Amino acid sequence: MDERPDQNFRERVSTSFARQKVMQTIGAALTKVEYGVVELEMPFREDLTQQHGFLHAGILSTALDSACGYAALSVMPEEAAVLTIEFKINLLSPGRGERFLFRGEVTKPGNTIIVSDGRAYAIADGPAKLIASMTGTMMVVRGREGIAG
């Protein structure tokens, strides 16, 4: 991943993230954008929990999918966008913490398919705890009306 097709990848990722209403809804913020790596953070919110008071698996999946997708977008040329076509999540520990960190990283870039891996961490007192991992497959989209990076 040494080639950087779009020198403005940080701006493209930030602009796209700002348009993603679901991230606003769950209170996630874009905190790191590097070439092939994106991090999101969000505080714990009781209204996003399941019946036992843990962060809901659907919220974990949503945030990890976005982190993986934006990591993929960061390695795309300016005219390309990405869409998730598949992901697998492993829930490793209950979503318990004061805040959460979601990191997506491109594992395999490509011209048509990109694979990204994601990790979710719960942060409270002490070291961050790995609570979920994801592998996502993104397709590269070019020239489709209404779909832009």
Give a verbal description of the structure.
This protein has 149 residues and is of the alpha+beta class. It has 3 helices and 6 strands; from the N terminus they run ααββαββββ. It has helices at 9-19, 21-26, 57-73; strands at 29-34, 37-43, 80-91, 99-108, 113-123, 129-142.
Salient structural properties:
single chain; 149 residues; alpha+beta; 23% helix; elongated
How would you summarize what this structure contains?
The chain has 149 residues and is of the alpha+beta class. It contains three helices and six strands. The protein has a six-stranded antiparallel beta sheet.
Rg computed from alpha carbons, rounded to a whole number of angstroms: 15 Å
Q: Reading side by side through the largest sheet, how are the strands ordered?
A: 1-2-4-5-6-3
Secondary-structure element series? HHEEHEEEE
What's the total number of strands?
A: 6
What general form does the structure show? Answer: elongated
Strand content: 35-45%
Number of helices: 3
The description of the largest β-sheet is: 6 strands, antiparallel
Q: Measure the end-to-end span.
A: 19 Å
Helix content class? 10-25%
Q: Compute the average pLDDT.
A: 93
Structural class: alpha+beta
Unreliable stretches covering 5 or more consecutive residues: none
Explain the layout of strands and helices:
Elements: H1 9-19, H2 21-26, E1 29-34, E2 37-43, H3 57-73, E3 80-91, E4 99-108, E5 113-123, E6 129-142
Antiparallel strand pairs: 1-2, 2-4, 3-6, 4-5, 5-6
